[in-house]
Amino acid sequence: MAVLGAMSLVAGCGTDSAGKATPSTSTDTSTATAALWDPCTAIPDSVLLKVGVDPATEKSGVGGIEEPGFKICSWNNDDFSIGIFSTNHSVDEFENKPDNTQLRDVSVAGRSAVEHRLASDRFDEVCGLIVPADQGAVQILLRNRSSSKNVVAPCDRVATVGSQVVPTFPE
């Protein structure tokens, strides 16, 4: 499932006065999560239809469970699924995640982004885009279905998806 690609970033952290990472309290995480841009409510159905996913397939969270520090929404069709992760985590944190590989700076819909693959993707089905935002970052994670009859390279497909959905992202 596409949602699993960013799950290792779910644990919240803050910094102490010396700049060392310290766990955030659940209240801090809850407040920060509540303030995040919500892809489920902010991306119009008309944009999802242009991308080629069915708005009726919308799922919030991971298996319907909200994750602290993230607002997650996913949609799918017969060929692929997309997960959009809104978070206060930075692009640097995503770049430093060991599973994110083949990092490449790209431009999507006039915004800078980082394209990446997953080391754990053994079947060449997944590609992601990480877009910086004032809140932290927004990630698109696309997973081609192995049963797809319309095979398109995942990074080509995520670039096409990004061209439509990135304009809805927060600055």
How would you describe the overall organization of this protein?
This protein is α+β, with helices and mostly antiparallel strands. It has one domain. Helices cover 22% and strands 33% of the residues. The protein contains 5 helices and 9 strands; from the N terminus they run E-E-H-H-H-E-E-E-H-E-E-E-E-H. It has helices at 26-34, 39-42, 45-51, 91-95, 154-165, and strands at residues 13-15, 21-23, 59-60, 70-76, 80-87, 100-108, 111-118, 126-133, 136-144. Strands 3-4-5-9-8-7-6 form a 7-stranded antiparallel sheet. Strands 1-2 form a two-stranded antiparallel sheet. A hairpin with a 2-residue loop joins strand 6 and strand 7. It is globular and about 45 Å long. It starts with 12 loop residues before the first strand and ends in a 6-residue tail after the last helix. The model is unreliable at 1-26 (pLDDT under 50).
Q: Strand fraction band? A: 25-35%
Distance between the termini: 27 Å
SS field, number of helical segments: 5
| Low-confidence runs of at least 5 consecutive residues | 1-26
Helix and strand content put the structural class at alpha+beta
Mean pLDDT: 87
Rounded to an integer in angstroms, the radius of gyration calculated over CA atoms is 15 Å
Order of helices and strands: EEHHHEEEHEEEEH
Helix residue percentage: 10-25%
Strands across the major sheet, in which order? 3-4-5-9-8-7-6
What is the total domain count?
A: 1
Protein name: DUF3558 domain-containing protein
InterPro entries: DUF3558 (IPR024520)
Organism: Nocardia aurea
